[in-house]
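thread from #wetlab-drylab

HS: before we spend reagent money on co-crystallization trials with D-ribose, can we at least see a predicted complex? here's what I'd submit
DV: go for it
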Amino acid sequence: MQIAMAADHGGFVLKETLKAFLKELGHEVVDFGAYRQEPCDYPDFAIPAARAVADGECERGVFCCGTGLGVMLAANKVPGIRAVRCHEGYSARMSRRHNDANVLCLGGRVVGDELAREVVQVWLRAEFDGGRHSRRVQKFMELEKSA
Ligand code: RB5
């Protein structure tokens, strides 16, 4: 799978850890930065990476900041993106099965490396259930057409 990654200084170390893990799992990572752990603004990285997912250049995204919240909020402003912040496996799995989430966000100051790896793996493996969930996702994605 081709995966877009993005982080600010608060998520930089976690991004690097997860990038190595995703490569180990055989995924291709497109890293939109940041490339250094210097103070920077998360939208500068989350928005281009989210666009790559929305445009189909990358299948999914894994974004990190201090809390996982900033990158999630920025990514969700890009049409076509369903970004979720998950720090445990159940929500990560259900965000795929019921919400068809295409970007996973994690907080480098919140979650440990081992838990983050587990959450990412669970999230990447889970598929969208479709059916009634497609109708529900469609109902809020349609708002983008009138925005
Ligand atoms: C940076 O200090 C921090 O605000 C950022 O990484 C993120 O947590 C914002 O939501």
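DV: The first strand starts at residue 2 and ends at 7.
HS: ok that's useful, forwarding to the group
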